[in-house]
Every structure is written in C-alpha cells, then in structure tokens.
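Why should sequence recovery work at all? Because a backbone constrains its sequence more than one might expect. Tight turns favour small or flexible residues, buried strands favour hydrophobic ones, and helices have their own preferences. The token representation captures these environments compactly. In the example below, the structure is given first.
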C-alpha cells in the first residue's frame, strides 16, 4: 500500500496533509458532486426569491442597494444561518468526504458553528479585505477551528476567488481594525503580507480547507461572472469560547488594546451571535454525486 496516497476514508494524501500544516490550507477537489452543487445553487435562489421560506436565514445586501430591487438575488452579498431552512445547504455542511478530510487534519469530533453563503455578484461584488477568521471568533485556541469555503461557480482571479498568504497561519494573530460595516474588519497596514499572496482558483464543488489564522482576501468582482460560494466554520469538540480579554491574547495592538473583530462598533451595532453558540452536530452525508 502506498502510504502517501489518499484512500476511501482518508481523502487527503500525506503530501496534502503536510501542505495544510505548512501553508495553512489545502484544496479538496470535488467535495460536492454536480448534483449537490446544483441543489445548493437552487437553494440559494429559493431563499432569495421566497420560494424557500427564510425562517432563520438572514440576507445581507451590497452597500447602497436594497432588498426591494427587481433583481434582488443579484444584489445579495451574503446569506447566514440557512442550514435549517435549506436541506441542500445542510447536506453540504455535513459532506462525508469533507469531514473525513477534516478528521485527517484535526482529529475526529467537531461541530458546525457558523454558516454563510458568499455570493459576490457580477460587477458590484465588493472586496473582502485581508483578515484572519479567528479574529471574528472568541475561541481560546484558533488551531481548533476549521474554515471551509466551497465554490459553487468557477472561482477565478477575475471574479474574486480566495487569495491567501501561504504559511501566514504560523505567524499568530495580527491586529485588525474595523470599518463601519461589520463585513469589513481588516488587518492593519503594518501587518499586511499581500505581496506574498497566492490566488486559489477552484471549480464548482471544490472545497478550500483553511486554518483560522491564515491571512486571506477576495477581490471585487468586476467581471460578468457569478461567484457563489458557501463557507462553514467548525470547531473541534470541547473547544472553549472565551471573552474579550481572552481574545486579546491573540489579537492586540502594540499598546495592548484589543484588535480583534468581535466587538460591536460605530454603525455596526450588531455582531455575529454564533447562533448563540449553538453547536450543530455533524451527521455525514454522501455528497459525491
Ligand atoms: O467569499 C468571500 O468573498 C470572502 C470569504 C471570507 O473570507 C470570509 O467571509 O471570511
């Protein structure tokens, strides 16, 4: 047996596991098959049009647009908290092959704690500034968090694919600063490493598995192409949520003050509620077709 090869239950090769450790990310190709990708897209359209009742789902729109526009779906920037409304999206979060890969990286046993769809619309899709996801989550150990970003359309440099700084997760937390939109909390200029960026182009169904301290960014979508993706955050069982003082140990300014993204500020009076910390158990689903 080739010890370096992926197997039926271990979809990542040793080289891919090593890449995650070294670079802070790895791409799992075809985590969702074409039927599951199509079902996710249909679910997002259904939630946008009302064909699927958005009981728990929250929609957020590109700045300067409203939800009364005729082309409502093409104004949406972000969906949150949809797994109980849309079984297809819940299946994606529970993808068996995805969790087999995460088991290889982090060990068995994790819960879903955040779910989003990021649907940077053609021409008006705005950038997501450089950041580390751990800056948004007051967990005491960022290494116990897994981020997963799954492309539903081809994600290319021209329509705002994920861009990352390989190895940046090894540098620990760096200070972030908020703008007046809670979607825009960014790494301060002194800590930016954008010159080392790598664009991660992906096909529909491919999943980017990334460390919560990885520096990453997406550019505006000035193309005519759609760029829909779902993003899930999990943490390993038993991971501990902390307070602002605890989070400050990872995200602090040179003067010692807090420099994470979890405190309401300015015009953004709300903050992620992490579904009140509700842990969602994983029930693996075959997403290969
Ligand atoms: O998909 C995007 O445009 C940005 C995703 C991301 O980095 C995030 O929401 O944390």
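From this structural description, the recovered sequence reads:
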């Amino acid at each position: 047996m080739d010890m370096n090869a992926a197997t039926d239950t271990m979809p990542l090769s040793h080289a891919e596991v090593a890449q995650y450790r070294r670079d802070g990310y790895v791409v799992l190709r075809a985590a969702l098959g074409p039927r599951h990708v199509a079902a996710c897209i249909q679910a997002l359209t259904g939630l946008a049009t009302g064909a699927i009742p958005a009981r728990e789902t929250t929609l957020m729109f590109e700045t300067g647009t409203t939800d009364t526009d005729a082309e409502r779906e093409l104004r949406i920037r972000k969906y949150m908290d949809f797994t109980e409304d849309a079984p297809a999206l819940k299946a994606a979060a529970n993808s068996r092959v995805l969790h087999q890969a995460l088991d290889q990286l982090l060990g068995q046993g994790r819960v879903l704690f955040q779910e989003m769809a990021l649907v940077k619309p053609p021409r008006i899709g705005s950038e997501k500034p450089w950041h580390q996801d751990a800056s948004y989550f007051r967990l005491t150990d960022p290494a116990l968090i897994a981020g997963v970003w799954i492309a539903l359309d081809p994600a290319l440099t021209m329509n705002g694919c994920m861009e990352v700084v390989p190895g940046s997760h090894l540098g620990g937390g760096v200070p972030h600063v908020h703008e007046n939109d809670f979607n825009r909390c960014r790494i301060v200029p002194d800590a930016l490493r954008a010159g080392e960026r790598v664009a991660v182009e992906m096909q529909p169904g491919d999943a980017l598995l990334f460390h919560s301290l990885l520096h990453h960014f997406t550019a505006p979508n000035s193309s005519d192409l759609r760029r829909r993706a779902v993003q899930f955050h999990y943490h390993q069982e038993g991971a501990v949520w902390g307070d602002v003082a605890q989070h400050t140990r990872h995200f602090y300014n040179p003067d010692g003050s807090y420099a994470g993204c979890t405190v309401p500020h300015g015009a953004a009076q709300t903050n992620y509620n992490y579904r009140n910390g509700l842990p969602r158990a994983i029930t693996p689903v075959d997403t290969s077709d």
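A few observations help interpret the result. The CA atoms of residues 17 and 105 lie 6 Å apart.
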